[in-house]
Amino acid sequence: MSSTSTATETILPAKNLIGSLRLPGDKSISHRYAMLAGLAKGTTRLTNFSTGADCASSLSVVEALGAKVVRNGDVIEVTGTAGAFQAPTAELDCGNSGSTMRMMSGLLAPHPHTFTLIGDESLSKRPMERIRKPLNSMGANIALTEGHAPIIIAGGPLTAITFDTPIASAQVKSAVLFAGLQANGTTTISETIRTRDHSEHALRAFGATLSRSSDAISIVGGQKLHAIDAAVPGDISSAAFFLCAALLFPDSNLVLDGLGMNPTRAALLDVLTNYGGKFNILNLEEKHGELIGTVSVQAPKNGLIGADLSGSIAAQLIDEIPVLAAIAPYSQKGIKVRDAKELRVKESDRIALVAENLRAMGAEVIEHEDGLDVPGNQKLHGANINSGGDHRIAMAFSVAALRAEGESIIHGSDAAAISFPEFYTLLNQIAER
């Protein structure tokens, strides 16, 4: 999504948030199901697949590799290639999706063809050396342009490795796991900080066997995948915006149905509980290794408290930090974020944009290389918000604007469609004005 977009969305202050929502499918799970379905034997049927443009990129890439993708109402059917991707006839366009580009690189590297993965302006600036290094150590031949896309893969046989992840990244872990699935030998990945485990659950759902110790995951190469039928849980990263919005208003009452409750993602609820939110989780069940439940949230009567995020919790909540920071001025203690340097190489420099937009709304902010400090007990006014073409910035400041004095205008608001096209419709649906 280009930062030069002229699309805008006007956000008016709200009095309350009340209602019940069922959110589109989890993006992280949708990506992985699409990719593994493309490699598997048979026809996978997916319901509640993410409606975002990023996950559509993953579907289009596996389709270009020989998988058959059929949309039948709200069901997406993917007939896989039974372990043998075809040579593409053109470059593989990953759009704005770093998940597609990084994880597909691992999935493609063992196949005996040449693949070129490209992306939009934003994706072409994001670091890709982090996946090239471990994949090349397995015997892959991956070329970059100054550490960035386009990625050119000359595929061929791979050999298993033992890999210590230098950064906390579920995408890097997934790329190596997907390559290890098709390599000769047993690939082991060690993590100092445990990252999202959707890939492990997805691989098991499609029939692979993995083993886990306290800080490492191993996969034996040469395993075959088979198709599944699955409903994708509601996206908890998307839910974060509505949960944070609900916490801004003491009389709010919000219910989210069918929400993904994976423990490596549900740390968000722990942090929001520390902020003062009250949550009830109902109808909890497990499907394909993923926990799904209904969540009701009520705001604290005496206002938000605040939070400190660093270390492993910052890594787990890397996507949610922008909205947590955007509501921090309304809390008592504010927020302190550290160990989140990864935010500077996302779709935008999210640390810089959060600071810029909070200051535009009248807040005091101290910016650090790996985080920021946002004091509490501040009042915000409406402002012109620069999304920077970043979906999470656009949505985070739409939430902050709900309790600001006066209207705010989100510039580049169509960035939200990258992950959550329904966002503004649903936000207006539950906001009382």
Overview of the structural elements:
With 433 residues, the chain is of the alpha/beta class. Helix content is 29%, strand content 26%. The chain is built from 13 helices and 24 strands. A 5-stranded mixed sheet has the order 16-17-15-2-24. Strands 4-5-3-14 form a 4-stranded mixed sheet, with helices on one face. A hairpin with a 2-residue loop joins strand 8 (141-145) and strand 9 (148-154). The protein is globular, with a radius of gyration of 21 Å. It starts with 7 loop residues before the first strand and ends with a strand. The relative contact order is 0.15. The model has no long low-confidence stretch (mean pLDDT 95).
Instruction: Look at the structure and give the mean pLDDT.
Output: 95
Shape descriptor: globular
Q: Which range best describes the helical content: under 10%, 10-25%, 25-40%, 40-55%, 55-70% or over 70%?
A: 25-40%
Major sheet: size, sense and barrel closure?
5 strands, mixed
Structural class category: alpha/beta
In whole angstroms, the N-to-C terminal distance is: 30 Å
Give the strand line-up of the largest sheet.
16-17-15-2-24
Supply the number of helical segments: 13
* Tally of strands: 24
Proportion of residues in extended strands: 25-35%
Radius of gyration: 21 Å
Q: Which runs of at least 5 residues are low in confidence (pLDDT < 50)?
A: none
Classify the oligomer: single chain
